[in-house]
Write a structure and sequence with these properties.
heterodimer; A: about 270 residues; alpha+beta; Serine Threonine Protein Phosphatase 5, Tetratricopeptide repeat; four-stranded mixed β-sheet; three-stranded antiparallel β-sheet; 11 helices; B: about 170 residues; 2 domains
Chain lengths: ~270, ~170
């Protein structure tokens, strides 16, 4: 399968240094404007950060009506209070990310059309978009260009420094994006671990352990870890990994490992 | 508009596992993970009933929290209503999931009937209220209608995809 037109690992990584706004959302929230990191104190109010993170989360949706935004983020019952909150947050947000804007024609990151708003991502580099694109390349190259897939997955996994917007784990407007990214990353980790099995089994073990830290019931990770220990000649650790898998699946789902995993275990036992 | 204190959200992840058993027959297994967003708690399940129990316990907490200041008698009455509502959801939801997997078209028909029922029972009597609606009310209504239209479109696309898959 061919890589979609205009998409390349180099371009994705280059955009990070050329985009005027860089946004990191995985593991922590950091924004860099023209090479300078915006300090936390510059945001003044949390609602401005919240509004910006909401725009980032809904970047692929159509422009959203102000009332919907207020409802989704703050669930404000009082219309006046909601509008006041939105106005103050938007004012602080644009002041923080567009500090030198003098004229209306100057570049805008937040696009307003009537009462709808959206984030213009053309001059923005975001770790989540880079992650998405790198995984697309990895998936497309997995069968025919494994070396290219390996680089793409590796870059994607390196970008994943933790969950999406960790300071918003109790808010529901970003829960689906967090879940989407986590499942995507687990898949990429497993594909990379598979590619590394014949090249560098130690890396397969490391990736499997990392995936199990995210989700201790991800059975494929146990299987790959067992295979990697086996290829390293470390049967005792392969057996220990199987026992751990058995115990977790029983404890969490009351089920046994899949036949595929049991077959690897039979191989381990010789 | 809703109030955040009256909102509770859940993220459910299903993982499908297909495998050949010892008799070489294809078997399917579902593993689930449910997370309560506002509380952060998580539960894994292979029986959908366990997920329902988890949701029920969180909804009961929500109802109890909002009843803190009410007299005991009133608390009892509202809790009983809340449990009855939940009982209906808990009985219907697993059926809904299974039916969707088995026959997406029949499911859509059922949803359409439910929508019609809701319109007949609720929208018609309320329509008179909108005759004296303000501009803001009207804009709110339009935003809601647009949102519903978008969701119906997405739902139709999903159903088409599922139906096509089934035909294949």
């Amino acid at each position: 399968m061919a890589i979609p037109e205009g998409l390349s690992i180099t371009k994705i990584l280059e955009k990070k240094s050329t985009a005027s706004l860089q946004i990191e959302t995985l593991g922590s929230f950091e924004v860099t404007l023209n090479g300078n990191k915006i300090p936390d104190s510059a945001w003044k109010r949390d609602t401005a950060v919240q509004l910006f993170q909401f725009f980032i989360t809904s970047r692929n949706a159509r422009a959203m009506h102000k009332a919907s935004i207020i409802d989704r983020i703050w669930g404000e019952t009082n219309e006046k209070a909601g509008n006041r909150n939105f106005k103050a947050a938007l004012h602080q947000l644009t002041k923080t990310i567009e500090p030198n804007k003098i004229n209306r024609e100057d570049q805008n990151f937040i696009i307003r059309q009537g009462l709808t708003y959206r984030l213009d991502t053309s001059q923005v580099w975001m770790d989540i978009d880079a992650l998405d694109d790198l995984i697309i390349i990895g998936n497309q190259c997995m069968n025919d260009q494994p070396e290219e897939a390996l680089v793409a997955y590796q870059q994607a996994v390196d970008l994943y420094r933790g969950i999406y917007l960790p300071n918003r784990i109790y808010e529901d407007w970003c829960a689906d994006e967090r879940e989407r990214i986590q499942v995507l990353v687990l898949g990429a980790m497993m594909s990379l671990a598979k590619l590394q099995l014949s090249r560098n089994p130690k890396e397969t073990i490391r990736l499997a352990i990392r995936a199990l830290q995210i989700d201790p019931t991800w059975e494929e990770a146990y299987r790959l870890q067992m295979e990697a220990y086996l290829s390293e000649g470390n049967r005792p650790l392969a057996v220990k990994t199987y026992r751990k898998c058995q115990q977790i699946l029983q404890q969490e789902f009351e089920i046994d490992p899949l036949p595929e995993t049991r077959r690897v275990f039979e191989k381990v036992r010789g | 508009m809703s109030n955040q204190k009256e909102t509770t959200s859940f993220v459910i992840r299903f993982t499908q596992k297909m495998y050949q058993d010892d008799q070489d027959e294809t078997q399917i297994q579902w593993r689930g993970n449910i997370r309560h967003v506002q509380g952060g708690e998580e539960k894994r399940f292979s029986d959908f009933g366990k997920a329902m129990e988890f949701i029920q316990s969180k909804l009961a907490e929500l109802t109890l929290e909002s009843l803190e200041d009410k007299p005991a008698e009133e608390q009892k009455g509202i809790l009983s209503k809340s449990f009855n509502l939940w009982k209906k959801v808990a009985l219907d939801a697993p059926k809904l999931v299974i039916q969707t997997i088995k026959d997406p078209m029949a499911q859509v028909e059922q949803i359409q009937n439910q929508v019609k029922e809701v319109i007949d029972q609720n929208i018609e009597p309320e329509i008179n209220q909108w005759r004296s609606a303000s501009k803001t009310d009207f804009q709110e209504l339009m935003a809601a209608v647009n949102k519903i239209a978008g969701e119906v479109k997405d739902l139709n696309e999903k159903v088409d995809k599922l139906s096509n898959k089934k035909k294949k």
